[in-house]
Amino acid sequence: MPRLKVTFYTKNECTLCNLVLDMLRDLREELSFEFYIVDITRSLDAWRLYWDKVPVIEAGEEFLSGRIDESELRGFLLRKT
């Protein structure tokens, strides 16, 4: 079974983004997923979609954004794996 692919939309100097990135790194091996980081300041399409929503986590066709705690993130990822 292929590993879950997660896209993490972020931007520089985003405190919430940094916290969520640390959580993703901590959970990556335990929950067996790959994640890709997209800096929304480098993509006009991503900027238009997420400038006011980062951090944003996309897995499949579902999204999680804003203030995300570890239990919420874990549950979201577990439902996808």
Notes on the protein architecture:
The protein is of the alpha+beta class. The chain has one domain: 3-Layer(aba) Sandwich (Glutaredoxin). Helices cover 43% and strands 27% of the residues. The protein is built from three helices and four strands; from the N terminus they run βαβαββα. A four-stranded mixed beta sheet has the order 2-1-3-4, with helices on one face. The N and C termini lie close together (10 Å). The model has no long low-confidence stretch (mean pLDDT 94).
CATH topology call? Glutaredoxin
Structural class: alpha+beta
Please bin the fraction of helical residues.
40-55%
The biggest sheet amounts to: 4 strands, mixed
Shape: globular
Annotation field: number of helices: 3
Poorly predicted sequence stretches spanning 5 or more consecutive residues: none
Compact overview of the structure:
This protein has three helices and four strands.
